[in-house]
Amino acid sequence: MRMSFESCIAFYCAPTLAGIKPSNLFTWRHIKKDDSRWHIDNLKRKFTESELSVEILCECSRYSLVFIYRREMLENTIKAPEVTAFLSDFGYPSSGGLAPSLDRLKERTENGGGFPHEIGVFLGYPLHDVKGFIKAPDRRCRLSGEWKVYANESETEKIFDRIRKCRDEIYRRFTNGSDIASLMA
Question: What does the domain layout of the chain look like in residue ranges?
Answer without folding.
Answer: 5-124
